[in-house]
Amino acid sequence: MKGHQITVEGELYLSLETYAEIFRIQVTWLRDVYDRGLLGEGVPSEAWICVASTQMDRIATLVRLHNSLGVDIDTLAWLLED
User: Do the beta carbons of residue 11 and residue 45 sit within 8 Å?
Assistant: First the structure.
């Protein structure tokens, strides 16, 4: 893997690059999703932004909605509003 991982208080965090590699998506798309606040709070680590591994199912769902149904980031944000 090209990405990065860290452990914070016993919880695994993976870099956006790692998630992009796992889900075979562009890092720029995932960064846009992260910037919209759809992945919770990240943790900076060196040159990477890392997101908790507990968000993996959420990322998978977002990727499926985008790739399979063509749902854009704005619509994803609207769908997932609190």
Answer: no
